[in-house]
């Protein structure tokens, strides 16, 4: 029998016991990052949704906290968001953390709760629900302060569109507009919205980004995160490129992505649930299910007149690096093998790769272990694509949707740079200076500790291959 705790990540958040899906209500206040999440405290499958709670001072080391919001007569507690009501617009007190969530029963309505002790405990608002509809899928409120109109804005996922509401006081909400018809991917229901203004790198400009999680209908089946770039005037979002679908991550395990409210220094810090509704209930962990992604800082970049999200692993992740790292440099004509990445590999590590002087058509490598389990990654520079193949990664047979090859478009720059975050049962690849991210689960029976590079149709130099052991400092 396999000890399934071998799959529990070290530097990714997981519930101690029970089921987790979406990150919820992420809010920063007075030096503390709060993470709430869709939680079933009674078992490791979806159901009985509560808001679980954890806190951190650095986005890396999380402390488990008691359940924050539990089901009541209006229903179980679905996804939502928190704000800090600095100006006391709601009358609960200046600086109160106010939570918005969907009360789910045979209908879905929006409810509110507030915390008078900085997020430790929540009281439900006496006049819930605050917003109802005849629509069946009506959920996942994201609330934020829109400075230009001095109003709160709420975005709701409603079937296959997003609806915008506004409010002066967080309690009374006015419908403003809907967005979605004919825009982006529509292979499934739209869920877990976010709307934020992000800076375009190297300019003074900002643009609005509407984050729209969709399930099913992702590029490789099941769940995924798409986004739209455009303008927002407090009432209406306008997509600047209606004909283009944009994805935030090109893996199979990146869903329900939302950002921290009130993050310091105006940062846009995103977190995703690292799973996919196709098999989230079947992954071979025991006692608990699901981890979040590593935190990622979002900004924008422009390429050929089109604006895209740039995804950067949050700088806090550098703190995980153990002093001892291994560094390699070599040329690849056909093959180059390393029989050991690091001593005593416990499965939590980072690989940084820089490739220069390339004239090969395909640049690739397999990460593998002594059991013949492997993940293969490669750039096809003719196709301008990056691939990750987990069809032989370890345990794969728990779902026919799990074995997969995921593919990201790349520019194929002169210098290729990749960072891989590996943590027992996941690989997150960040490539080409933030131009693509790819997150995939893996269930190997022992850590991959060997790597084998290959070149097709030419050669290249790996000028840097650094392997860092990653761990929380005790
Ligand atoms: C997304 C989602 C949300 C919903 C929650 C229920 O994964 O379906 O739309 O609020 O999960 O757990």
UniProtKB/TrEMBL annotation:
One of its GO terms (cellular component) is cytoplasm. Residues 12-305 form the Glycosyl hydrolase family 32 N-terminal domain. Keywords: Glycosidase, Hydrolase. The keyword Hydrolase applies. GO terms for biological process: sucrose catabolic process. One of its GO terms (molecular function) is sucrose alpha-glucosidase activity. Residues 316-468 form the Glycosyl hydrolase family 32 C-terminal domain. Belongs to the glycosyl hydrolase 32 family. This is Sucrose-6-phosphate hydrolase. It comes from Bacteroides graminisolvens DSM 19988 = JCM 15093. The chain holds residues 132 to 605 of 605 of the full protein.
């Amino acid at each position: 029998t396999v000890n399934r705790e071998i799959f529990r990540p070290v530097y990714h958040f997981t519930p101690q016991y029970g089921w987790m899906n979406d990150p919820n209500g992420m809010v920063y206040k007075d030096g503390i990052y709060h993470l709430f999440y869709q939680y079933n405290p009674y078992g490791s499958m979806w159901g009985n949704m509560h808001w679980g709670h954890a806190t951190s001072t650095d986005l890396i080391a999380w402390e488990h906290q008691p359940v924050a919001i539990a089901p009541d007569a209006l229903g179980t507690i679905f996804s939502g968001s928190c704000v800090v009501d600095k100006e006391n617009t709601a009358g609960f007190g200046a600086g109160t953390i106010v939570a918005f969530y969907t009360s789910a029963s045979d209908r879905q309505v929006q409810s509110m709760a507030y915390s008078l002790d900085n997020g430790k405990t929540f009281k439900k608002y006496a006049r819930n629900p605050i917003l109802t509809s005849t629509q069946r899928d009506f959920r996942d409120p994201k609330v934020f302060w829109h400075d230009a109109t001095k109003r709160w804005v709420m975005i709701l996922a409603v079937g296959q569109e997003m609806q915008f509401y506004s409010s002066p006081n967080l309690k009374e909400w006015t419908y403003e507009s809907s967005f979605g018809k004919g825009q982006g991917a529509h292979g499934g229901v739209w869920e877990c919205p976010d709307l934020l203004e992000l800076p375009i790198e190297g300019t003074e400009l900002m643009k609005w980004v509407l984050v729209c999680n969709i399930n099913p209908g992702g590029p490789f089946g099941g769940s995924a995160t798409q986004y739209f770039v455009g303008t927002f005037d407090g009432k209406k979002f306008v997509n600047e490129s209606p004909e283009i679908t944009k994805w935030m991550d090109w893996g199979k395990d990146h869903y329900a992505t939302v950002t921290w409210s009130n993050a310091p220094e105006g940062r846009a810090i995103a977190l995703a649930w690292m799973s996919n509704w196709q098999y989230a209930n079947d992954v071979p962990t025991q006692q608990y299910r699901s981890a979040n992604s590593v935190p990622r800082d979002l900004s924008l970049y422009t390429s050929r007149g089109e604006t895209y999200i740039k995804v950067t692993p949050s700088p806090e992740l550098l703190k995980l690096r153990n002093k001892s790292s291994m560094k390699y440099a070599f040329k690849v004509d056909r093959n180059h093998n390393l029989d050991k990445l690091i001593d005593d590999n416990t499965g939590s590590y980072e690989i940084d790769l820089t490739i220069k002087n390339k004239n090969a058509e395909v640049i690739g490598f397999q990460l593998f272990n002594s059991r013949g389990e492997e993940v293969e990654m490669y750039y096809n520079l003719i196709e301008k694509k990056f691939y990750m193949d987990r069809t032989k990664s370890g345990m794969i047979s728990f779902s026919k949707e799990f074995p997969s090859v995921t593919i990201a478009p790349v520019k194929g720059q002169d210098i290729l740079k990749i960072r891989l975050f590996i943590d027992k049962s996941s690989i997150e690849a960040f490539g080409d200076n933030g131009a693509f991210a790819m997150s995939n689960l893996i269930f190997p029976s022992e850590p991959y500790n060997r790597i084998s590079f290959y070149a097709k149709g030419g050669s290249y130099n790996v000028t840097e291959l650094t392997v860092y052991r990653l761990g929380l400092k005790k």
